[in-house]
Amino acid sequence: MRWGDFRRSDNVEDRSEAGSGGGGFPLGGGARLGGGALIVIVIASLLFGVNPLEMIGALDSGGPGAPPESQQQPPPGYGPQRAPAPGQAPSPAAPQDPAKDFVAAVLGDTEDVWGAVFKTMGARYEPPRLVLFRRATQSACGHASAATGPFYCSADHRLYLDTAFFNELSRRFGAPGDFAQAYVIAHEVGHHVQNLTGTMQKVDQQMQRLDERSRNALSVRLELQADCYAGVWGFFAQKRKLLEPGDLEEGFRAAAAVGDDQIQKRTQGYVVPETFTHGAADQRLRWFRTGLESGDMRQCDTFAARGP
Ligand SMILES: [Zn+2]
């Protein structure tokens, strides 16, 4: 992916060097937030059926772990650094952290794409902020840790991304590559789009009245739509010839790897479809492709589809 050509977003909040738990939203234990906010944090992640304890165990034993704060390692899979675009002078201070630079580039491009898409609908796109953290931080939706995986918090309009996650994606999920990483960010941005359009609130309200099984089914539709929206962003990246050979395959591999069936097989050895909250690999792949091939968010109506 020629991400060196992307405009950098100013909306990245880097808490990765502030130590664990830095910054954030002291909300007194989240007492102000009802169960609804809690549901939103759970459903608006990328990963989803992962057993947090299992993930923590993996991190502690031979996973990427957490290097000392002073040894920030960029995630693997970044393309070659390119010369700054005209008007983008290199920082005179310390060289830009490549991980942060990558995230700012992808986020910046999603801002441009969704800004244009919203404009065609006569609406204004309010970009989200992206919080880069290491190990743990606070969000308006509660405590965030590496085990949570990337997620979007509707209450503070922020994406939360642990810098170690891209290593996870490459090593544990077998989905390396910059476009795979961009898909993760674009999926969370997709949740932000759902928040702006009101879909997330509608789903959240419906969920309060449903039993667990039906809640899960609704959650799957919400997640698949975020995958489709990630594809819509990819469509425009592709249209501007910013993708390189192999990028699409990287994205497809990532979308499939985070399918609930794949994760359950890996973590518990068997699959329980009614517990799916994000969709099976083939569904995630199909909806990501739907967005990628159409570039039309109206094609992403996973709620109308008879079966996602
Ligand atoms: Zn999600």
Structural overview:
It is a single chain. This protein has 308 residues and is of the alpha/beta class. 45% of the residues lie in helices and 8% in strands. α5 packs across α7. It is built from 10 helices and 6 strands. It binds zinc ion (ZN). The site of zinc ion (ZN) has 7 residues, from α5 and α7. The site of zinc ion has 7 residues, from α5 and α7.
What is the secondary structure topology, with strand pairs?
Layout: E1 12-14, H1 35-43, H2 52-60, H3 98-120, E2 129-133, E3 136-139, E4 142-145, E5 151-153, E6 158-162, H4 165-171, H5 178-197, H6 199-208, H7 212-239, H8 247-257, H9 260-268, H10 281-294
Bound molecules: zinc ion.
Zinc ion is lined by residues 44-46, 187, 191, 223, 226.
Brief write-up:
45% of the residues lie in helices and 8% in strands. By secondary structure, it is an alpha/beta fold. Zinc ion binds at residues 44-46, 187, 191, 223, 226.
Overall spatial form: globular
Terminal-residue CA separation: 29 Å
Helix-strand topology string: EHHHEEEEEHHHHHHH
- Main sheet properties: 4 strands, mixed
